[in-house]
Specification:
8-stranded mixed sheet, alpha+beta
Length: 193
């Protein structure tokens, strides 16, 4: 059976064929997840400007021009020989359309997905990261991507809490300094959400 009839895609090219040229707008009870555009940099620069956001990921807040360049690169996507697809969303509150963060999924052959989230400091502690990442994981599952993981710095307790709420579990695997957290496979009694 092929991807069009509901089986898991066997290659990244097949997966991209299933996903189409653009990712979907996702909604949750409190959030809108808009596919990233370069224009989002204007309003996201102030959401991402707190140095505390970089404590576990390195770097420092980007200027508007640097953020535009980064978004331009993300929107363009990787070169085909990289064998991956980048899916990025801006997270907005539905009640006032204020941007609160970003969420992303990097798809690789398997298919597998690495998910990540960033929520601006004033918007942390309200469950936005969990709600947005849960929506993305649901979208991935709907597209037959069930091998999902996140790479989280061992000192990043808030992201670890989000991962636990999503049903991801820490593994012994490492990606640099980060711990790989995995969603248990379908049918596993420990799988949440």
């Amino acid at each position: 059976m092929d991807a069009a009839r509901g089986a898991s895609p066997r290659s990244l090219d097949e997966l991209i064929g299933v996903l189409g040229p653009a990712i979907d707008l996702l909604t949750t009870p409190r959030l809108l997840l808009e596919p990233l555009t370069v224009e989002h940099a204007e309003e996201m620069v102030s959401v991402l400007d707190d140095p505390r956001l970089h404590a576990h990921i390195g770097g420092e807040p980007l200027t508007l021009e640097e953020l535009r360049a980064r978004y331009r690169h993300l929107v363009a996507g990787p070169a085909p020989f990289h064998q991956e697809a980048w899916l990025n969303w801006i997270v907005r509150r539905r009640r006032d359309h204020r941007p609160v963060g970003t969420v992303q999924a990097t798809i690789t052959p398997g298919p597998r997905a690495a998910v990540a989230w960033v929520v601006g400091m004033p918007y942390q502690g309200f469950g936005f990261a969990t709600e947005a990442a849960r929506a993305v994981i649901g979208w991935l599952r709907a597209h037959h991507i069930t091998d999902v993981h996140a790479c989280i710095h061992p000192g990043n307790a808030p992201s670890q809490a989000v991962a636990r709420k999503l049903g991801l579990r820490p593994t012994r695997e490492r990606a640099g300094e980060e711990v790989v957290w995995r969603l248990p496979p379908p049918g596993d009694p420990d799988r949440a959400g």
